[in-house]
Design a protein that fits this description.
heterotrimer, A alpha/beta (246), B mainly alpha (291), C mainly alpha (339), B: 291 residues, 11 helices, 2 strands, globular, C: mainly alpha, ABC transporter involved in vitamin B12 uptake, BtuC, two-stranded antiparallel sheet
Chain lengths: 246, 291, 339
């Protein structure tokens, strides 16, 4: 028997005034998957992520996270349940150093869940560990404004990982990066997936998406038009028509 | 309570006239806050500046206050552009926290009021004009000219502004920048220049609004504070960017304030607008006519 | 410095200043002036918890402050009211209890305002606080029991607890409040709560996504800030002996409680203290020489000036100089090696 999916999205819809951003999206994400979510600009990818993470409220549809209904839960509650996201444009806490940037989500998720709380020393150690994992260990006391683009992206991911998620949405974590930098980020994501985190990669960079994803979902104008193995989806004529990738 | 029809009708009519004036007071903020996302809480200071300017010229040269207001339009326009430049170079371009911008305008509001106290004292000032005093009588209804003239002029001003914003190139650029500054940049128009013009227009409206104010009632420096709640309540209730929405909201608040003043006493008027503001923010941030 | 040590150090400093000034200063005027400066320490620190730490601007300090003052008036008149209407005799309510009540009243109003407006952008909260000041003033002006627009006379008790004059007693109470508020501010700074506040200030969306319950924390900040302001206002009736809406809602409180943290520096507990002591003392000295309106004009101009030129305040300027010196020392040896 296949294990229960980690996320079940049924009929999720979102409007902004007269504009339909999402139209009845159905999606099942299996545990441990590497899902790629692609689509042209304005297709609703970020809106979908925002609705799933609780930043926006969807008007219709239900979302079940590990069997737990998410209706009515706001963003920080969903994060505490184990659903994390990184932002398209990095949003660091600019007056806090890198360690504190990691400490905030750590204190407010891991230490806020029922069960054992980490002591101050353990928190400090875990922050250093997380920074080290993304290669930012030696910049622990620096401020975000001293970081390069790719380092900021890594910080974003590290912050999301600090919450000990079971499902992570990586929202365009690679936009504007050089090929070798893209490889760095991909390596981080692969490693996280090996540790057991289900990852949804929202991306435009087809090479990255194709090498990373075990399944591909395509959104166009707020509708899901394809869902399946990457090689097949890419050959789908509708997908070719609507979205000519890199 | 036995409600006299006469009183009620006159309260409503007075409220409508008041609403027309309130629209003039608010249109500047609809542009600066609704369209440009600049929380210009110093708006009442500019309005009072307009009132006192009208007072000075009117008492020394005897010119008609509304004429003075029109003549002052370019002066206030330049003032607004200068204030925006200062704001832009100090805050917007530095990406500072919102707090510094708010503190800046609060400082302006405060310095404005205190400067007026230092220069003019706390005595009430008023202007003289042929239409301050007489009223039109239409059956049940009294239409004081000192309220009718500003109301009509105000609606005219707002209609002209609406026309300008929707027809002229600069006007449409302003509407564009309020929706997407980046797109505007790609069209090779500078958002900063457009916003400067828009803020200038927003301040220019205060020249006339200030004149209307001193026609309707005598002014002294601290009455500006009563207008903060009203201005932002009307702006939010009106849907932030919509002129028709703003006028509707202004009329609504004007009528409720007028009825409250007639039947419960005038000292409760400032609380009405605030009540509206809280209610709108709590229930329908998109305003009456939606965004 | 560990937090416990800070509280002890602050208490020691406060007590030392208290004892020394009460013993050596015989001129009553000192205590009148010092009361006002200490009051501003509390107001600025309270404002900064919501403003500097959490990033939400409150322009209605006057409302929270006056609510504290007027709740004391209500309590002051309570024994007379109960005796007259219900034939109940209760003793005069002691000032420390009035302070606590003032804190509860203002804290609740802060909570209410926050609940209604904090789910929206910070700008709406700021505007709501501006309007709140007007509304609370309107309510007080229309409430005859506390004097309405005519104002009310409050008689200072003849005997002050702990001996000495009544004004020295007020000064002592305000010193205690100042130490408490500074202690609270610093404790918050070093705690998980403070980190949460800073995250909200820096990027509220990211904080929320990171698990920070932003609405709850903002409400805590608003309530705490309002409560401290109310506590600062509670002794005011006994200080001025004649309380009226125009003076108690004086714009001076609103502008000073913003200017002092901005000029002192909003990121640390010490900024509001520096700003309050500096500006407060200057204003107290200046009121004897220049008009109060000119006084306030200067404060307003300083606020605008600092916000444009030195947005991080005096503390920010000091930190910047230290960083620049540190960077210079790092580059100089390299330059020497390159030569």
């Amino acid at each position: 028997m296949t294990p229960a999916p980690i996320l079940e999205v049924s009929g999720v819809g979102k409007r902004f005034g007269g504009f339909v951003a999402l139209e009845s999206i159905d999606l099942i994400i299996a545990r441990g998957e590497r899902l790629g979510l692609i689509g042209p600009n304005g297709s609703g990818k970020s809106t979908l992520v925002n609705c799933l993470c609780g930043t926006l409220r969807n008007e219709t549809g239900r979302i079940l996270f590990d069997g737990h209904p998410l209706d009515g839960l706001i963003a920080h509650e969903r994060t505490r349940l184990g659903l994390a996201r990184s932002f398209q444009l990095p949003k660091p806490f600019h007056t806090l150093n890198l360690t504190d940037n990691i400490r905030v989500p750590l204190l407010y998720t891991v230490n806020a869940r029922p069960g054992h709380r980490l002591s101050d020393e353990q928190v400090e150690a875990r922050c250093r560990e997380l920074l080290h994992e993304v290669g930012l260990g030696d910049k622990a006391r620096r401020l975000p404004r001293d970081l390069t683009q790719v380092e900021m992206r890594k910080l974003e991911l590290a912050r999301a990982v600090a919450t000990e998620p079971r499902l992570l949405f990586a929202d365009e974590a690679m936009a504007g990066l050089s090929p070798s930098e893209i490889e760095e980020i991909l390596a981080v994501l692969f490693r996280l997936n090996e540790q057991g985190i289900t990852i949804v990669l929202i991306e435009h960079i087809m090479r990255a998406v194709m090498s990373f994803s075990t399944r591909l979902v395509v959104l166009v104008a707020g509708q899901k038009i394809a869902d399946g193995a990457p090689q097949e989806v890419v050959r789908n004529p509708e997908v070719e028509r609507a979205y000519l990738g890199e | 309570m036995a409600v006299s029809l006469d009183l009620l009708v006159n309260a409503i009519v007075a409220g409508i006239l008041l609403g027309g004036f309130y629209a003039a007071v608010t249109v500047g903020v609809t542009i600066s806050f609704g369209m440009l996302d600049i929380a210009n809480i110093a708006q009442p200071a500019f309005i009072l500046l307009g009132s006192y300017a009208a007072y000075i010229v009117n008492s020394y040269l005897g010119l008609d206050p509304i004429l003075i207001g029109i003549v002052m339009l370019p002066v206030f326009y330049l003032l607004g552009m200068a204030v925006y430049r200062l704001y832009y170079y100090s805050f917007e371009s530095r990406g500072e926290q919102a707090i510094q911008g708010l503190a800046f305008f609060f400082g302006l509001l405060f310095v404005g009021e205190v400067s007026l106290v230092l220069i003019f004292g706390v005595d009430y000032r008023f202007v003289e004009a042929p239409y301050i005093g007489p009223s039109l009588h239409l059956g049940l209804v009294d239409l004081p000219l000192r309220m009718l003239v500003p109301c009509v002029t105000s609606l005219l001003m707002i209609a002209l502004l609406q026309l300008y914003l929707s027809r002229s190139f600069i006007g449409r650029a302003i509407l564009a920048v309020s929706q997407d500054g980046v797109a505007l940049q790609l069209m090779a128009a500078s958002p900063m220049r457009i916003k400067q013009i828009a803020f200038g227009i927003s301040t220019a409206t205060c020249a006339l609004a200030g004149t209307f104010l001193i026609i309707i009632q005598p002014v002294e420096p601290s009455i500006g504070r009563d207008y903060i709640g009203r201005i932002f309540a009307i702006c939010v209730l009106g849907g932030m960017t919509s002129f028709p929405g703003m006028v509707t909201a202004a009329m609504l608040i004007g009528i409720v304030e007028s009825i409250t003043a007639t039947f419960y006493g005038p000292s409760w008027a400032p609380a009405v607008a605030f009540g509206f503001l809280l209610l709108t923010l709590a229930v329908r941030p998109a305003g009456l006519l939606g965004r | 410095m560990r937090n416990g040590f800070f509280w002890i150090a602050a208490a020691v400093v406060g007590t030392a200043v208290l004892v020394l000034t009460r013993v050596f200063f015989t001129n009553e005027y000192f205590f009148f002036a010092a009361y006002v400066v200490l009051q501003y320490v509390v107001l600025s620190t309270a404002w900064n918890i919501l403003g500097g730490y959490t990033g939400y601007t409150n322009f209605g300090t006057g409302a929270f402050f006056a609510l504290g003052a007027y709740s004391s008036v209500v309590l002051h008149k309570m024994p007379t009211l109960l005796h007259g209407s219900f034939d109940l005799t209760i003793p005069q309510i002691p000032l420390p209890i009035m302070i606590v009540v003032g804190g509860i009243v203002s804290g609740t109003v802060g909570l209410g305002t926050g609940y209604l407006t904090l789910r929206l952008r910070g700008v709406f909260f700021a505007i709501a606080t501006l309007a709140l000041a007007i509304v609370v003033q309107t309510l007080i002006v229309n409430w005859d029991y506390v004097g309405g627009s005519r104002g009310i006379y409050i008689i200072r008790p003849a005997l002050a607890p702990l001996g000495g004059g009544y004004i020295q007693y007020l000064y002592t109470l305000m010193m205690v409040l100042a130490v408490i508020s500074v202690g609270i501010a610093r404790t918050i700074e070093r705690s998980r709560l403070g980190l949460g506040f800073a995250a909200i200030r820096d990027d509220e969306l990211a904080a929320e996504a990171g698990g920070v319950p932003t609405l709850r924390l903002k409400l805590i900040a608003t309530t705490l800030s309002g409560a401290l302001m109310g506590m600062a206002g509670a002794p005011l009736p006994y200080y001025v002996t004649y309380l009226d809406p125009t003076s108690s809602f004086n714009l001076a409180y609103a502008v000073n409680s913003v200017a002092m943290p901005v000029i002192g520096g909003m990121t640390s507990w010490i900024g509001p203290v520096i700003g309050a002591i500096l500006l407060g003392t200057i204003q107290q000295l200046a009121t004897v020489t220049i008009s109060s309106a000119l006084n306030l004009l200067i404060v307003g101009l300083l606020l605008i000036g600092f916000v444009i030129i030195a947005p991080n305040g005096i503390v920010g300027l000091v930190q910047a100089r230290r960083r620049a010196r540190g960077a210079r020392m790092q580059t100089q040896p390299q330059a020497a090696r390159a030569a």
